[in-house]
Amino acid sequence: MPEGHRAESVDTARKLPDLLGPLLDGVAESVIVRAPSGHVLLWNKASEALYGYSREAMLGRHLHDSLNAHHPTTLERLEQHLLEQGHWEGELKRTLASGEDRRIEVRWTVQRGPEGQPVAVIEYGRDITRLSDAELETRLQAHRYRNLFQAMAAAFWELDFSEVRKMLAGLAHAGVKDFRAWFEAHPEFIDSAIAVTRVVDVNDKTVMLFGNGRREDLVGGTVAPFWPRESRDVYAESLLASIHRLPSLSRETRLSTLDGRLIDALFTVCWPSGHHGRGTVLVGVIDISDRVAAEREVRTSELRYRNLFQAMSTALFQIDTSRQRELSASLAARGIEDIAAYVDSEPEFLVIYMDAMRVGDVNEAAVRIMGAKDRSELIGQPVTRFWPRSSYPVVRRSLVASFRQDVTFEEETLNCRLDGSEFNTLFTLNASPELRARNMVLVGLTDITERVAAQKALRQLQSEFAHASRLSMLGELTASIAHEVNQPLAAIATNGAAGARWLSRREPDLDEVRAINANMVSDAKRAADIIARIRAMASNKASERQRLSPNTVVEEAVRFLHHELLAHEVDLRLELAEDLPAIEADRVQLQQIVVNLALNAMQEMKRAGCPSPRLHLATLACDDGLRFEMEDSGPGIPLEHQERLFQSFFTTKANGLGMGLSICRTIIEAHCGRIWAENVANGGARFIFTLPFARTPSRPG
Amino acid sequence: MSSESLISVVDDDASLRQALVRLLRSLGLKGLAFDSAEAFLASGQLEHSDLVITDIHMPGMSGIDLKRELDARGSSVPVIMITAKTEATVMERARACKPTCLLKKPFDSEEFIACVERALSL
């Protein structure tokens, strides 16, 4: 600031006493005007009485130094705050001419020149040393209110409404009854009301939000600069609220800052009880520009979501879950926590649950996939009709997942088209917290009919291969099979001959004949069992999963091998773990694997001229479920064969097809297991496969 | 053929073993059953046996092993071998140790009886 300018301002201020001095002497309150430097420019009579210093003694002296002023924060801070804010009020300790300390309540306001530069500080002061406790308490409350008023994150305005009241009274006098209609017909009335609504006070937040940081630009003026025309009806609303004596009114509107920027605001006006008729109202304004911007963003993203929703080639269903929520709440209210158990005991609940879920919206792909003519055929439908009874277990699992607050659920299932025809689908459900908050979940359906058909064909092919491999295996076992069947046949023939001899005696020994007959029946049954076992192995039945005891499967397979083991003079050792859980598998295919592995081992041991061939079969439980091991005492697997061992058409046999191990792997992998081979430390090969144990049976239903 | 004759039957298949003993009994002969060659040798019945009927394929000692053992012990007891196996090599090895008879399962009972009678008359 140029020196000259400042000097001139001070000069102007120095002239003040001449003009104002006599006037201010009549005021009971202490009024002191000081230069920004702190030197006293004006000292009225009340100040002389309060502090005991004459005007002559004080003019030109430094105010704070002369009165030995004290404040919990430093005076420099107070002065700095004053210059920034233009205003300060609070309590100081000052020392009177008599040497006595007093508590003085002061209000300071900065006077500024035409350039905005501080020219003088006006102080109003009061001795509050002797105020009664009650008065102090009241003042403290007022102080608290002011602090609150200032500290609030909201911008607060104290408005003088008295002129507007007069205008309203004039209207009432003129016979206006329906103010709403009248306001609508006369927007210019609202404009003039705005133009006479005066700003009494504002808090710091208001100064920051609406002004350029200067309280005096706001206080004393009207609200017109802040009230754009587009928000006129909100002003009219608040007038109506006032007329109808509502305690408060809140509206979202747009207000303008001093520099013309529009802000989205939550505008709250309240007429504190007892203020009716007094003309001042308190207005709170919260800047919600950020929130409004966020909402606009949400709307844009919703639009984006809608576009995506429609454009997706997957069939999408937006499901309204409001009623389903009520169902959940009512279950919770009845103390039902284990939803799975509840559904099992009340199977009809599934239908109630599906009835409660209605299609809110669908995309074009959904219209196509469900065979609808257009979206309206699907919207509003409960989802029940899309679920055939055979798929209810899937609904049950999705329900349990939903109660667990799982975000996604996915399963392959069957669904119904509108015409009731069933088709294979991949059902996915998304219940993200964002969707849940809007009472909806998103369901995607993919038509996997073709994939399912392809998988079926593949399974068929694999099963054919397994069958071919079994037949070839049986071929290798022909000699063993012949031997095995011959045993009971030989016994039958022998018994038959013996029986005939006993009968042809003069006195037939019928007891002996009966015993022989019983033996023949049991041998015939034994032969039939062997045939049945071979027939099962030779059959081309579709793969059939059932719960099996792992050890039983191994024991049955060993029966196939009995004669082969004898023929090769193989020492077989079984080490089967007790109490193994069940597996879910195809019995014949698993036996095929055990037989196949054992045959391979025996052949390899024979080929290597193994002197004392041994085969060790073991079952045990491991992390992956069942672990089956077969160890032989042969030469082990040559390194160069290890990688190709399980590949198709890999064989070491002169007349082998090379399908055996490859089929074993296919079967094991189709059962979600793993098969591999390794060499045993002291010679021999070990084949291992694992299979998951069957899931513990769920509750019936 | 004397009713005093004792015939030892060695076969690991219980039902055929039993059937053979019954057939012998219907002929008026006394059969003693053993489920393995080892059990037979350990029983001490070799000396009392007039005929040994043995299966070839058994866990442990085979019928061929048994015949060789008897030869080694200097026993002259006749031996009838029965087998359900038909592989040429097996038959070859069986014939090589000169059993009185070599029968394939299932065998004709008349043929079996003829074999037994021939063996006992030796």
TrEMBL record, chain A:
<keyword id="KW-0597">Phosphoprotein</keyword>
<dbReference type="Pfam" id="PF13426">
    <property type="entry name" value="PAS_9"/>
</dbReference>
<feature type="domain" description="Histidine kinase">
    <location>
        <begin position="480"/>
        <end position="695"/>
    </location>
</feature>
<dbReference type="InterPro" id="IPR036890">
    <property type="entry name" value="HATPase_C_sf"/>
</dbReference>
<dbReference type="InterPro" id="IPR004358">
    <property type="entry name" value="Sig_transdc_His_kin-like_C"/>
</dbReference>
<keyword id="KW-0547">Nucleotide-binding</keyword>
<keyword id="KW-0902">Two-component regulatory system</keyword>
<protein>
    <recommendedName>
        <fullName>histidine kinase</fullName>
        <ecNumber>2.7.13.3</ecNumber>
    </recommendedName>
</protein>
<dbReference type="GO" id="GO:0005524">
    <property type="term" value="F:ATP binding"/>
</dbReference>
<dbReference type="InterPro" id="IPR036097">
    <property type="entry name" value="HisK_dim/P_sf"/>
</dbReference>
<dbReference type="InterPro" id="IPR013656">
    <property type="entry name" value="PAS_4"/>
</dbReference>
<dbReference type="Pfam" id="PF02518">
    <property type="entry name" value="HATPase_c"/>
</dbReference>
<dbReference type="Pfam" id="PF08448">
    <property type="entry name" value="PAS_4"/>
</dbReference>
<dbReference type="InterPro" id="IPR000014">
    <property type="entry name" value="PAS"/>
</dbReference>
<keyword id="KW-0418">Kinase</keyword>
<keyword id="KW-0067">ATP-binding</keyword>
<dbReference type="GO" id="GO:0000155">
    <property type="term" value="F:phosphorelay sensor kinase activity"/>
</dbReference>
<feature type="domain" description="PAS">
    <location>
        <begin position="23"/>
        <end position="99"/>
    </location>
</feature>
<dbReference type="InterPro" id="IPR003594">
    <property type="entry name" value="HATPase_dom"/>
</dbReference>
<dbReference type="GO" id="GO:0042802">
    <property type="term" value="F:identical protein binding"/>
</dbReference>
<keyword id="KW-0808">Transferase</keyword>
<dbReference type="InterPro" id="IPR003661">
    <property type="entry name" value="HisK_dim/P_dom"/>
</dbReference>
UniProtKB/TrEMBL annotation, chain B:
<dbReference type="InterPro" id="IPR050595">
    <property type="entry name" value="Bact_response_regulator"/>
</dbReference>
<dbReference type="InterPro" id="IPR001789">
    <property type="entry name" value="Sig_transdc_resp-reg_receiver"/>
</dbReference>
<feature type="domain" description="Response regulatory">
    <location>
        <begin position="6"/>
        <end position="120"/>
    </location>
</feature>
<dbReference type="InterPro" id="IPR011006">
    <property type="entry name" value="CheY-like_superfamily"/>
</dbReference>
<dbReference type="Pfam" id="PF00072">
    <property type="entry name" value="Response_reg"/>
</dbReference>
<keyword id="KW-0597">Phosphoprotein</keyword>
<dbReference type="GO" id="GO:0000160">
    <property type="term" value="P:phosphorelay signal transduction system"/>
</dbReference>
<feature type="modified residue" description="4-aspartylphosphate">
    <location>
        <position position="55"/>
    </location>
</feature>
<protein>
    <submittedName>
        <fullName>Response regulator</fullName>
    </submittedName>
</protein>
